[in-house]
Write a structure and sequence with these properties.
alpha/beta; Rossmann fold; 2 domains; 8-stranded mixed sheet; 7-stranded mixed sheet; 15 strands; binds nicotinamide-adenine-dinucleotide; oxidoreductase; AlaDH/PNT_N; NAD
Length: 371
C-alpha cells in the first residue's frame, strides 16, 4: 500500500503521524511511504532520517493526498486538507467529529474512509488510542503545577517535595483514571503529600493497592472535596464522565477557602473543565489568576511535549496502521472489531452512531461497510 504522512498544519501542532521508526516498520512490510518534506521537524526528525528509514520525501502535501492510499495524521484534517481527500482514500487520525459539523460534512462529501483514533476500542472497554495522551497530560500536569507554584509565576513559593526539615506540598488529584493515576505517580515520585479523590470504589481500590503508603485515596463527595481543596497547594482536575461535560466540582466560592498562591491545573478543560472558574488557555499564555489562585487550563497539553507525545501515539497507532496496510482496511476490520469501532465515515455515510445522533445525520452501521 502507498502510505503517506503530511506536516500538521493546525495552529501550534508539532506532532507528526508517523515517526521515522514507524516508517521503517511499514517499509519492512513492503509498503511505500511518502513523507511531506519537513513533516517531522517539530519532533526533531529531519527529512534525512525519514529517507534513511525508507521513506520518499515529497515536497508538497497535495502530491501525497493525490497519491497515497492511506493518510496517517495526528489532528483532524483542516479545510484545505479536506478538499484534497479522495473517494476511497483511507484517513487514519484523530477526528472528534461530534462537535464538528463542518468537518463531518466535508468528510462525507469526500467519499473517503475515515478512521478516528479516539473511537478505536480494546478488550477492557477502554480507548487505547486516547490513553497515551492522557498519560502525557497527567504526568505533565505536575510539571506545570510545580512551575506555577513558583513565586515568579504567581504561586505560593512551595517546592513539591519539600526539603529535609520542611514539609512537602499537598497535592489533591480529583479523578483517579488515566490522567489522575499518572499525575499521582509523578507527584508521589517527587515526594509530595498526595491525595487522590474518586467516586468509583473499584478505582479507589486499584489506586490504594498500587500506591500503598505513597498516596492517600479518598472518596469524592462534596465534604471531602472541599476539605482537600482548602488544604492543597496544588489541585489537579482529572475527572471524566464519558460523553458528558465535566462536572464543576470546585466552585468559585471554594476558591475563597484556598491558600493564596495555590494552583489549580484543570486537565479536564477539554471537556469544559471541572473548576467553575476555568477557561481554556494556550501554551503561549497557560495561566491566569482568580482570587489569588493560579489556574492552568491548557486544552492540548501533550502538544508542548510533541516528541514524547508523537512516540507515545505511534506506539499505539502503528499496529493498526500495519494491519490496514497489510490486509486492506476491510479485512483488517473484519478480523478486529475494535478497529471497526474506529470507522466514523465511509463512502459518504456516517458509521459511528454517537456522531450521527449528535449531528442529526443518518446513521449507517459500520459493519455494512464490510459486506
Ligand atoms: N488538557 C489536555 O491536554 C488533556 C489531555 C488528555 C486528557 N484530557 C482530559 O482529562 C480528563 C480525564 O481523562 P482520563 O483519561 O483520565 O479519564 P478516565 O476515564 O481514565 O478517568 C476519569 C476518572 O474520573 C472519575 N470521576 C468521575 N466523576 C468524578 C467525581 N465527581 N469525583 C472524582 N472523580 C470522578 C472516574 O471515576 C474516573 O476514574 C478527560 O476530560 C480528558 O479528556 C485532557
Amino acid at each position: 500500500m502507498i502510505v503517506g504522512t503530511v506536516r500538521e498544519i493546525k495552529n501550534h501542532e508539532y506532532r507528526v503521524g508517523l515517526t521515522p521508526e514507524s516508517v521503517h516498520e511499514l517499509a519492512a512490510h513492503g509498503h511505500e511511504v511518502l513523507v511531506e518534506s519537513g513533516a517531522g521537524e517539530g519532533i526533531g526528525a529531519h527529512d534525512a532520517l525519514y529517507e534513511r528509514a525508507g521513506a520518499r520525501i515529497v515536497p508538497a502535501a497535495a502530491d501525497i493526498f493525490a497519491t497515497a492510499e492511506m493518510i496517517v495524521k495526528v489532528k483532524e484534517p483542516q479545510t484545505d486538507e479536506r478538499a484534497m481527500l479522495r473517494s476511497g482514500q483511507i484517513l487514519y487520525t484523530y477526528l472528534h467529529l461530534a462537535p464538528d459539523p463542518e468537518q463531518t460534512r466535508d468528510l462525507i462529501a469526500s467519499g473517503a474512509t475515515c478512521i478516528a483514533y479516539e473511537t478505536v476500542t480494546d478488550d477492557s472497554g477502554g480507548l487505547p488510542l486516547l490513553k497515551p495522551m492522557s498519560q502525557v497530560a497527567g504526568r505533565m500536569s505536575i510539571q506545570a503545577g510545580a512551575t506555577a507554584l513558583e513565586k515568579a509565576n504567581g504561586g505560593r513559593g512551595v517546592l513539591l517535595g519539600g526539603v529535609p526539615g520542611v514539609l512537602p506540598a499537598k497535592v489533591a488529584v480529583i479523578g483517579g483514571g488515566v490522567v489522575g493515576f499518572n499525575a499521582a505517580q509523578m507527584a508521589a515520585g517527587l515526594g509530595a503529600d498526595v491525595t487522590i479523590l474518586d467516586r468509583d470504589p473499584q478505582a479507589l481500590e486499584r489506586l490504594g493497592m498500587y500506591f500503598e503508603a505513597r498516596a492517600k485515596t479518598r472518596f469524592s463527595n462534596r465534604a471531602n472535596l472541599a476539605e482537600c481543596v482548602a488544604e492543597a497547594d496544588l489541585v489537579i482536575g482529572a475527572v471524566l464522565i464519558p460523553g458528558a461535560a465535566a462536572p464543576k466540582l470546585v466552585t468559585s466560592e471554594m476558591l475563597g477557602t484556598m491558600k493564596k498562591g495555590a494552583v489549580l491545573v484543570d486537565v479536564a478543560i477539554d471537556q469544559g473543565g471541572c473548576f467553575e472558574t476555568s477557561h481554556a488557555t494556550t501554551h503561549a499564555a497557560p495561566t491566569y489568576i482568580v482570587d489569588g489562585i493560579v489556574h492552568y487550563c491548557v486544552a492540548n497539553m501533550p502538544g508542548a511535549v510533541a516528541r514524547t507525545s508523537t512516540y507515545a501515539l505511534n506506539n499505539v497507532t502503528l499496529p493498526h496502521a500495519l494491519r490496514i496496510a497489510d490486509l486492506g482496511w476491510q479485512e483488517a476490520m473484519r478480523r478486529d472489531p475494535h478497529l471497526l469501532a474506529g470507522l466514523n465515515v465511509w463512502d459518504g455515510k456516517v458509521t459511528y452512531q454517537a456522531v450521527a445522533e449528535d449531528l442529526g445525520l443518518p446513521y449507517t452501521p459500520a459493519r455494512e461497510a464490510l459486506a
